[in-house]
Amino acid sequence: MNRERILDKVVSRTKPWDLVVIGGGATGLGVALDAASRGYQTLLLEQHDFAKGTSSRSTKLVHGGIRYLKQGNVGLVMEALKERGRLCVNAPHLVHHLSFVVPVYTWWEGPFYGVGMRIYDRMAGELGLKPSKALSLEETRKRLPTIEPEGLRRGVIYYDGQFDDARLAVSLARTIDDVGGCALNYMRVVGLIKEQGVTAGVRIRDEEGGKELEVRARVVVNATGVYTDEVRKLDDPDMAPLIAASQGTHIVLPRSFHPGDSAIMIPHTADGRVLFAVPWHDHVIVGTTDVAMTDIPLEPRPLQEELDFLLGHSSKYLTGDPTASDVLSVFSGLRPLVKGEGAESTAALSRDHTILVAQSGLITVTGGKWTTYRKMAEDTVNQAELLAGWEERPCRTATLAIHGATDVVPAARHLQVYGGDAPALMALADEQPGGRESLHPALPYWRSEVIWAVRHEMARSVEDVLARRTRALFLNAQAAIDMAPMVAELMAGEMGWDAGRRKEQIRRFTQVAQGYLISTRTR
Description:
By secondary structure, the protein is an alpha+beta fold. The chain folds into 3 domains: 3-54 and 167-242 and 348-388, 3-Layer(bba) Sandwich (FAD/NAD(P)-binding domain); 80-161 and 245-337, D-Amino Acid Oxidase, subunit A, domain 2 (D-Amino Acid Oxidase, Chain A, domain 2); 413-520, Helicase, Ruva Protein, domain 3 (Orthogonal Bundle), CATH 1.10.8. Helix content is 35%, strand content 22%. It has helices spanning 3-12, 26-37, 66-70, 74-90, 109-124, 137-143, 165-178, 228-235, 304-317, 373-388, 422-431, 447-456, 462-469, 472-475, 477-495, 499-513, and strands at residues 17-22, 42-45, 61-62, 95-104, 133-135, 154-163, 182-184, 187-195, 198-206, 212-222, 243-254, 263-266, 275-280, 283-287, 291-293, 329-338, 353-357, 363-367. The strands form 2 sheets. Strands 3, 4, 5, 6, 11, 12, 13, 14, 15 and 16 form a 10-stranded mixed sheet that branches. Strand 9 and strand 10 (212-222) form a beta hairpin. The longest helix has 19 residues, at 477-495. The chain is globular, with a radius of gyration of 23 Å.
């Protein structure tokens, strides 16, 4: 996957594309892959990097959604459980089974959650994982060795999926390339082309070179998440807003605060959400929150109330009583929830996806969640076929292997996210001087992974490497800051940066990374 090659193809193309997809998060990548795999000439355009926004900031779970079942949204849960099963099969290098334990502190919770989990199991059908069951007090404490013991009666265990969100996004971009589609990062859509009132393409600006050009398309899809209304306003400045943004924040703690292999699910919190403490890449993610937001920045910042909430609940349920000084990283994401009538909070808004077709023919798809990205994409491309009057082509993504798909675990376990590319990456590491040397003693990442990211994964900045090709920024913000000079040096050798460009890249990344240090992210 090479940006220069793809950009040359876009610049030299004289025919209209079948589909142009705006947005390089989970939804846009899914739509572009579905369309390209059906044989449509497809171009995806992302203003920053793939999964820069919400799609790299999830709780890292592929799940049906226990709380949606409680809300009575059976359809969403069944769809998500089906998609969870497909993801486990199609991307085994990135998605795996994870056990979750609900600690029971009151007598009535055990039967209540036991029945709920059994319903959850049955709904998953043949794509289900292991069956849920009640745990004794002894079994619960064995699985959750640092859970607060006072008042603990027993537990309930169930199974869901876990994944690496940004790495799945990169793998989807590579799969688009594999099937003949085109995906470009750092390509901003600055306007829509209209012909007799019909959307006929987009005007774009290369954020690296500054060049602007027009791209024609038979169908344009708006899949920009929390920026959905911005693109809709390019089509109709008077349109009514569709999106209600909700912020979710997570803190990352050392593994010592929860060394067990099972995730913890707390079903009752002050804001009405469930709370998770999830083992991930040898760290622990605690989240999330649900706060309505009107500001839509590219880098959302956690509120003090969110940090207080997460630390307070962590101390309530974990014996280590983590404080702000224990937090290695904090990250926030904005959910693109579709506005509902009479909803008192964003927690009450639907997580279902919505597809709209404007009078001009612009298709907008929004809402949903990572787990259901594939189904959202299938529905959107079906709508595009209907709109354009094309003969229907069958969807292929239900059984399409994602780039790198393999269940073989490499000797260097942190390379598992590369899947089938891991042997080639290890060969590259052996070719490079110091290729297997760690970028930082606190994290497992190799120097050769930086070179791989530039050559094969379209990484264009230090941030791309440290936030989304590796997950250093999300795991340990200070370590990522310390790694930035070495990453910039390695990238400079691949991309021809001079000393001034290296310095600027380090400065920009450090500025972003400061926002992931808990001491600097309150307001």
